[in-house]
């Protein structure tokens, strides 16, 4: 059987180590020795001569093998990444809580043609891939044009005294069009970012770099990150374990227990089952602690040492959640995890079943303390059936809606052709639009959901996350009214606290006096 010529992933991702600990390997051993020393041990103490270096290596190896890995967590590495796909960022870099990133925004920065990843493909399919991506890039710009009249009309309604001929308001309108038009862009689209992680996280990256969903790109980027650190400190990865091949990852092994025809037939019944369970929600409350209010109230009394006859449950909940009394909620810094009383909010816990677009989830996952179990993406796609989220603004713009449907229907035909012609599903996934729905479960405690809901209920938040936050708040409020009555947007919090101006956004003010509205009355188009 003749060998099919294949290309390689291109362009090459660009990885640069911007900042790092001076001596990360020696620092790790110094922290380990300090645990068993009557005095502090410093990095320079562990490599004075051959004897201390020999002891250093023995300690490093034994602590690693024993699983005492906090020693390599002290060292931090800041990378700049360029020409990496949004699929890679969503599936790998931002799928866990132990990182910090600052990434170019598709909401506010216009996407230029030609900036996308091309996976390794059969040579005769490369041109088909380019045509599909370039078609989506062109569709993005056309959608911006089609949406502009609707956005201008709504913007004029919200800000009747603003002259839409002023450049700053024209830019504001343009960005609102871009925010929605990006739903049609492929997840192959490039991003650039700063990405900061600990040495421990980098070891974990190295071990699982070949897992689903984009093993080739993951392996290439992580390999460059590791190489950059090795160049900085050749000893840091001295005892690192080899990467697990895709075939040895847990997800792969479980899926292999079922034959290929059966696995391929799952997506349709799974999607039907999931969506039926979800009902009319984008985010449905599926689990919570039944005694949320009473446990929260008791924990408040426990922190303060107050007996129940001196402080009722309602008074205790009011003490910690009422923004008129708890001024931490109006601070620029999020202080709740540091405050003794606000740490009582870790006891209530909620789980939501969610269906939101790839674009929305790429922002939702940045709330790292409300973690989720996101899918092996190829297991949730029907290659013969188009499946995508329709933003409200597109629904309200008939010409844009028709164009949106037509474009995505054609895209699905192209993807189906590539899969049926022998391309790997993980490579064809790069063509998925930002609009593709991610179906998953998300859990968290009240402390971190409160922070998320407050900021995402702001009308300047991404519309889908804003809507799911509203749905979540209203469901929690129905079950726990003594807790739910204290939820609202940042401006509502500031009004309750008596802090002016109520809106902290300045020129980005949404045009609506949200601080006067209950959450159930929130409604927006842009």
| Overall SS class | alpha+beta
Biggest sheet strand line-up: 1-2-4-3
Report strand %.
Answer: 5-15%
Helix content: 40-55%
Q: What Rg do the Cα atoms give? A: 26 Å
**Assembly state:** single chain
Shape summary: globular
Q: Extract low-pLDDT stretches.
A: none
Biggest sheet, in brief? 4 strands, antiparallel
User: Residue-averaged pLDDT, rounded?
Assistant: 96
CA(first)-CA(last) distance: 56 Å
Record field, number of beta strands: 8
Our count of helices gives 20
Strand-and-helix sequence, N→C?
A: EHHEHEHHEHHHHHEHHEHEHHHEHHHH
Short description:
This protein is α+β, with helices and mostly antiparallel strands and 526 residues long. Helices cover 44% and strands 11% of the residues. It has 20 helices and 8 strands.
Write the layout of secondary structure elements.
Blueprint: E1 14-20, H1 24-34, H2 50-65, E2 76-85, H3 86-93, E3 100-103, H4 126-158, H5 167-181, E4 190-198, H6 199-207, H7 215-232, H8 250-255, H9 260-264, H10 267-278, E5 283-288, H11 292-304, H12 313-321, E6 349-357, H13 358-364, E7 372-373, H14 392-395, H15 398-420, H16 425-428, E8 437-445, H17 446-456, H18 463-479, H19 481-484, H20 490-497
Helix pairs in contact: 1-2, 4-5, 4-15, 6-7, 11-12
């Amino acid at each position: 059987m003749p060998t099919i010529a294949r290309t390689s992933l291109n362009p090459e991702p660009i990885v640069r180590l911007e900042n790092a600990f001076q001596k990360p390997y020696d620092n790790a051993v110094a922290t380990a020795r300090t645990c068993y020393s009557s005095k502090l041990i410093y990095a320079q103490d562990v490599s004075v001569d051959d004897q201390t270096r020999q002891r250093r290596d023995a300690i490093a190896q034994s602590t690693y093998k024993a699983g005492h890995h906090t020693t390599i967590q002290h060292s931090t590495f800041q990378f700049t990444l360029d020409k990496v796909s949004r699929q890679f960022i969503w599936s790998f870099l931002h799928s866990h809580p132990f990182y910090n990133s600052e990434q170019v925004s598709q909401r506010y920065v216009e996407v230029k043609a030609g900036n996308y990843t091309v996976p390794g493909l059969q040579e005769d399919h490369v041109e088909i891939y380019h045509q599909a991506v370039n078609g989506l890039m062109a569709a993005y710009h056309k959608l911006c044009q089609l949406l502009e009249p609707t956005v201008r009309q709504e913007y004029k309604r919200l800000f009747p005294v603003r002259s839409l001929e002023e450049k700053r308001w024209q830019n504001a309108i343009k960005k609102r069009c871009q925010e929605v038009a990006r739903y049609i862009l492929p997840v192959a689209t490039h991003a650039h970012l700063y990405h900061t992680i600990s040495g421990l996280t980098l070891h974990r990256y190295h071990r699982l770099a070949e897992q689903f969903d984009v093993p080739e790109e993951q392996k290439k980027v992580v390999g460059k990150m590791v190489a950059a650190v090795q160049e900085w400190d050749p000893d840091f990865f001295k005892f690192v374990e080899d990467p697990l091949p895709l075939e040895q990852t847990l997800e792969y092994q479980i899926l292999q227990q079922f034959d290929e025809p059966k696995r391929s037939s799952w997506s349709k019944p799974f999607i039907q089952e999931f969506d039926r369970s979800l009902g009319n929600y984008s985010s449905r409350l599926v689990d919570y602690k039944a005694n949320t209010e009473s446990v929260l109230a008791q924990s408040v009394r426990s922190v303060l040492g107050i007996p129940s006859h001196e402080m009722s449950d309602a008074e205790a909940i009011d003490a910690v959640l009422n923004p008129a009394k708890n001024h931490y909620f109006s601070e620029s810094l999020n202080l709740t995890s540091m405050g003794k009383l606000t740490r009582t909010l870790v006891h209530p816990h909620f789980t939501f079943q969610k269906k939101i677009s790839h674009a929305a989830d790429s922002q939702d996952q940045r709330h790292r303390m409300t973690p989720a179990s996101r899918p092996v993406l190829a297991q949730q796609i029907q290659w013969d059936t188009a499946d995508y989220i329709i933003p409200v603004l597109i629904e309200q713009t008939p010409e844009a809606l028709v164009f949106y449907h037509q474009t995505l229907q054609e895209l699905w035909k192209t993807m189906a052709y590539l899969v049926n012609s022998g391309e790997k599903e993980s490579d064809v996934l790069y063509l998925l639009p930002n609009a593709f729905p991610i179906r998953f479960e998300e859990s968290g405690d009240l402390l971190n959901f409160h922070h998320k809901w407050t900021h995402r209920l702001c009308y300047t938040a991404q519309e889908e996350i804003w809507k799911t936050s509203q749905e979540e708040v209203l469901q929690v409020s129905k079950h726990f009214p003594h807790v739910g009555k204290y939820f609202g947007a940042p401006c509502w919090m500031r009004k309750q606290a008596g802090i002016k101006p109520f809106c902290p956004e300045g020129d980005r003010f949404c045009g609506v006096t949200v601080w006067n509205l209950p959450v159930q009355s929130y409604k927006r188009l842009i």
